[in-house]
Amino acid sequence: MEEKKNKPINKPIKGKVILSGEIVCKTGLHIGASDAGLSIGGMDNPVIRDPLTKTPYIPGSSLKGKLRSLLERAMDKEFDKKGGSGKSVIYRHECSKASCKVCRLFGSSSKDNGNIPSRLHVRDAFLSETSINELSELEEGLPYTEWKEENSLDRITCAANPRSIERVPAGAVFEFEIVYTIEKEEDLKDDLNNLQAVLKLLEDDALGGGGSRGNGRVKIEIKDVLVRKKEHYLEGKDEIKVELGGDDLGTSVEKVYRGS
Q1: 104 and 187 in contact (C-beta within 8 Å)?
Q2: Sign of the CA dihedral running 216, 222, 224, 228
Q3: Structural contact between residues 93 and 79, judged by C-beta atoms closer than 8 angstroms
Q4: What is the reported pTM?
């Protein structure tokens, strides 16, 4: 019997687009960590922290997951894949079709249709040096964060159930970086415009936990956009800075990429 050959896959790297900027907390931000070994002074809901500096940060996985979820919903995708277990069961869209704007941008893993590696690399976002200095002077009893007391009420008995939640205070600034891999030139404009749209959508939604209770309102400011074609890596050619003006992100980057 003739051995079945795998279909060849072409995954070129034609360049990278590097977006960097700031995530500014307009209200307190809570991105939680495991309670095990991380609770400070009996805190019910601690934030995730860098184990070396003890400063809070935004994991790239949390930011990427939120952006993907918002794009799935904005594009009215079916949540057709089940993940997690127990009380942590989640549903998400994952079709693994090359034509799917969500899966080609954020990646997909499917036993039936194969894997689509993500075109986005979302780095962990760390506090700016200015915010570290400002938050180190807080008198809240917690390093770099505040302690917010909340109450949930039993609708029948009116019994209060107090709880505490740790938050990064409003005004704190995180520095972020997102790297987009250019695989198909014809997708470049569309992919980056979808990324820009979902970053704007996040500003009117919430990042982290407790968004419906006032947490997690953020402002996202893109400060710099760089295009590094593959010749930058292979031949040492210069990177190109994209001037952000009246055009949308995708159009601005495409002009630089095709004109260079």
Answers
A1: yes
A2: positive
A3: yes
A4: 0.87
DSSP result, 67-132? HHHHHHHHTT----EEE--GGG-EEE-----TT-HHHHHH-EEETTTEEE--SEEE--EEE-HHHH
Task: Check if the beta carbon of residue 218 is closer than 8 Å to that of residue 24.
Answer: yes
Q: Which contiguous run of DSSP H or E holds residue 165? A: strand 160-167
Cα distance between the two ends of the chain: 51
Report which of 219, 214, 23 is spatially closest to residue 122, judged by C-alpha positions: 23
**C-alpha span between 195 and 238 (Å, rounded):** 25
The pLDDT tens digits along the chain (260 residues) read: 444 455 556 789 999 999 999 999 999 999 987 554 444 445 568 899 999 999 999 999 999 999 999 999 999 998 877 766 666 677 778 887 778 999 999 998 766 666 888 999 999 999 999 999 999 988 777 889 998 876 666 667 766 666 788 999 999 999 999 999 999 999 999 999 999 999 999 999 999 998 988 999 999 999 999 999 999 999 999 999 999 887 899 999 999 999 86
Q: Which 3 state secondary structure label does DSSP give 18?
A: strand
One-letter amino acid of 75: M
Please provide the DSSP assignment of 45-66 as one string. Answer: BPBPB-TTT--BEE-HHHHHHH
Q: For residue 75, give the nearest of 109, 101, 113 by alpha carbon.
A: 101
Q: Residue 166 in contact with residue 40, Cβ under 8 Å?
A: yes
CA distance 171 to 127: 11
The three-state secondary structure class of 170 is: coil
Q: Count the alpha carbons within 13 Å of 41 in the hemisphere toward its beta carbon.
A: 9
